[in-house]
Amino acid sequence: MEQRRELFLPAEWHRQQFIQLTWPHEKSDWVYMLQEVEECFLQLAKAISIRCRLLVVAPDTEKVKQLFEKERLNLSNIRLFECETNDTWARDHGFITLLGDTVPHYLDFCFNGWGRKFPAELDNAINNKLYDAGVVKGEYEDCLSLVLEGGSIESDGKGTLLTTSQCLLAPHRNQPLTKEQIEQRLKNMLHVKRVLWLDHGNLIGDDTDGHVDTIARFAPNDTIVYVQCNDVDDEQFADIQAMEAQLATFRTEEGAPYRLLPLPSPTPIFDEDGERLPATYANFLIMNKCVLYPTYSQPQNDSLAAEVLAKAFPSYEIVGIDCRALIKQHGSLHCVTMQYPCIEKY
Prior knowledge:
Layout: E1 16-22, H1 34-49, E2 53-58, H2 61-70, E3 78-82, H3 90-93, E4 96-98, E5 105-110, H4 113-116, H5 126-132, E6 139-147, E7 153-155, E8 160-164, H6 165-168, H7 179-190, E9 194-198, E10 216-219, E11 223-227, H8 237-249, E12 259-263, E13 269-270, E14 276-277, E15 285-287, E16 290-295, H9 299-312, E17 317-322, H10 324-327, E18 337-341
Parallel strand pairs: 1-2, 2-3, 5-6, 8-9, 11-12, 16-17
Antiparallel strand pairs: 1-18, 4-5, 7-8, 10-11, 13-14, 15-16
């Protein structure tokens, strides 16, 4: 019998077995712009399925299948799973996967609509249904005693976790636990050795209370890619500058400073009511030798973001996906995807 090894939380650039999308539908908040957002999801599904297996969770899989057939997607590389859902944010309701054993360990945390802001009971039940149906094969771990969204944490694959104090300490998540108690639970449940807490950088219009995947991301070779703001007249300027200063103080486990690569900030995008939307280039997905990143029809900024990501991932294909539809519901590309890593190393 193969001996069990130490469990670990892989980095997103670990080889992946498939990517999950949870499809938008007419009973979700997307109903007023369903065709527009479905076009974005179709582009995502196409970009993912030609490079990696794709799992699509939807209340009406026949409808999704018809959309895929019309767009001539390769259905042999796509699995459709039918169940009721509230919304589309797979990053936050999907399994968080640990490796190191002979099978993956799928951690099912509580998703409560970012602190009870939105209905989430259907989305919170998706993981259990996927596991019971055998869509994911491995060890199921019930972590529902802790509210934790996938977008709120980043792993370097070596035992360091990056997160934000604003999100993990936000109301209606894990009170009355203290910061120290939450950190200890993260270490125990996710098998990490240390936690780096960012205290600044929340984007205006962000419903998540400051998910780290909107502002700062780990990349290989002790690199952190992060959002930068150089416009002194931008109302986010001071807080993002404070985040940048804090990142400069962070050290690797070996005591060295991180290699910091700044991403541009998109030109501010507003909704029909004049409210600012949390557009960010940090919300990218790392796939098998490919990075899918959000674009916002801002040629100069979109191009600069691609150049930075190419520095962070020099051997990867960098592919832009127009995410102007996603940002209208205050999310972006990474928010609607969840990766499921393979046991073997890349």
